[in-house]
Amino acid sequence: MATLADYGPEVRAEVKQVREVVAALHEQLVKWNLVVWTAGNVSQRLRTADLMVIKPSGLRYEYLTPSSMVVCDLDGNVVDGSESPSSDTASHAYIYRHMPDVYGVVHTHSTYATAWAATGQNIPCGLTMMGDEFGGPVPVGPFRLIGSEAIGEGVVETLKEYPKSPAVLMQNHGPFTVGKDAEAAVKAAAMTEEVAHTMWAARQLGEIIPISDEDIAKLNDRYTNVYGQH
After folding, report:
1. Is 219 helix (H, G, I), strand (E, B) or coil?
2. What is the distance between the alpha carbons of residues 31 and 9, in angstroms, rounded to a whole number?
3. Class II aldolase/adducin N-terminal domain location, by residue (predicted)?
């Protein structure tokens, strides 16, 4: 089995940098109230090798450091680290192997998004910000058990049907989000919880007014190609 010492200096330098990024981004999960105790995880894939950096399993957030982050290959095998990797490692690895444009994956159990997942419902697209960020509803994926590639398979299958969404609500489990890097995936996780909460509140007031597919497409195109700095 390969170890980090088998890789060149460019790879080892990127591992060091990504460990720092991934450790810091776990603080954002706590800041945005997306996790409790030890639940949830962030990973980022390397650009220089088929490796990823992921949170260790069962370690409290206040104890996470760059050195505690675990380096794995894209089959989920540990390449470097003194801790056991997240129980979701096989699913993160599956997503990276089957979605080559994805370089960041996040899993949380944030309250409102997980509530939609527990009822097996898509979050309907009733906000312009959902058209912007998700290109439609936030979809629910199938029920899958933890500990193998099965959740990753469900995420990939669902995102094939909803290619503009960076988020999937795995039924009875919680949200998984993807992005061009781990920060983008964390942003998607925060946005998922925000719209889950707002759409839940809207349901208490009455029926949600859907946005047309035509307008969703316009919103998503503007957000993708015009909004922000370029």
Report:
1. helix
2. 34
3. 20-200
CA separation for the pair 44, 143 (Å, rounded): 24
In the 3-class helix/strand/coil scheme, how is 55-111 assigned residue by residue?
Answer: CECCCCHHHCCHHHCEEEECCCCEEECCCCECCCHHHHHHHHHHCCCCCEEEECCCH
Q: Return the closest-CA partner of residue 171 out of 197, 144, 192, 194.
A: 144
Could you report the average pLDDT of every consecutive run of 10 residues in the chain (230 residues)?
A: 95 98 98 97 98 97 97 98 97 98 98 98 98 98 96 98 98 98 98 98 97 97 83
Query: Which residue is listed with tokens 């470097």?
Result: 80
| Rg (the chain; Cα; Å) | 17
Assess contact for 209 and 125: CB atoms under 8 A. Answer: no
Q: Edge-to-edge, what's the strand order for the sheet holding 70-73?
A: 78-80, 70-73, 51-54, 41-45, 104-107, 174-179, 167-170, 140-141
Say if CB 82 and CB 59 are below 8 A apart. no
Where does residue 58 fall: left (phi above 0), alpha (psi -120 to 50 degrees), or beta otherwise? left
Pairing type for strands 78-80 and 167-170 reads unpaired
Rounded CA separation 175/40 (Å): 10
